[in-house]
Amino acid sequence: MRAVLLLSPEKLVLTEKEEEPVGHGEVKVAIRAVGICGSDLHTFKGLNPNARLPVIMGHEIAGEVAEIGGGVIGAEVGDRVVIEPLLRCGKCFHCVRGDYNRCTDLKIMGVHSDGGFCEYVVVKESMIYELPKEMTYAEGAMVEPTAASVHAAIKRGRIDLGESVAILGSGTIGLLLLQIVKACGASFVLVTDVVESRLKVARRLGADLVVDVREEDPVKLALEQTGGLGVDVAFEAVGKEVVLKQALQMTRAGGRVIIIGIYGRPSVKIDVMKTIFNKELVMKGSRVYSSGDFDRAIDLIRRREINVEPLLTHLLPLEETEKGIKLMIEHKEKAIKVHLKP
Q1: In the CATH scheme, what architecture does the domain 2-142+308-341 have?
Q2: What pTM, to 2 d.p., does this model score?
Q3: pLDDT (tens digit, 9 = 90+) per residue, 130-140?
């Protein structure tokens, strides 16, 4: 099969790779759409210390079951599916509680093992979910980032009716978060970015205020909009120290700051006493998703409560994987979500 292999940072090759055999309890999926994620950009640039190179990146996968192994009882050849790309032990304290995103031996396709920038993948039957007939493969490939956003907004952010929210960063995750917090009843949502085309999409999807941080101070505007109090919840969806500091400054005393952005440089300098202790802030990380999040994400997209269409800006062949990655890194051609079609 054809596959795009990351040999070393910023060195991709299109190669032929032998297809993996299908074992007991496993299915082979022919990939119909796979998204390029922000975490893939970190891996590409050599900023993901967990990546085991050489590796086939890609974990936002939708496709069709091409082969089933012995013992598979819930899938048939031809089924349309999406893949949950987490490889967990299933036995540790966290896994048995359904919090498998905290597995003590968690691995992720496209990082620790080969992912979806190829024609076929073999996964356990437990990792596939039915793709409803109302959804396209492109929408199916958006389930994974939607599940991560569901986890951040509902399980970690615990958004409540009437709350004010700031979303710092309007890439794929930020724009999905915007729609989810609105659906949860947020009364005011501020969204920031440095790319005007993304802010236009945020306006279209219901943001109450968009802020180009190159031109305006998001902290000042957040405080003005909340009578000097600060927002109830801020989501840091960029992964940069300056943005985290903005989130801490614009959140009210007793509020919540949720970190969902991935940090290429994870060490940050924060005045803990001033920004967290004195304000009694609750600061949480939000790592991928856990039990029930994938099902909820599929349902939200199927019922059109989440509109992923404005985010789907590019569809490229596998041969143009590097072009897609660079479009996202360089914010060219109004790129938000780039999909590959093997």
Answers
A1: Alpha-Beta Complex (3.90)
A2: 0.97
A3: 999 999 999 99
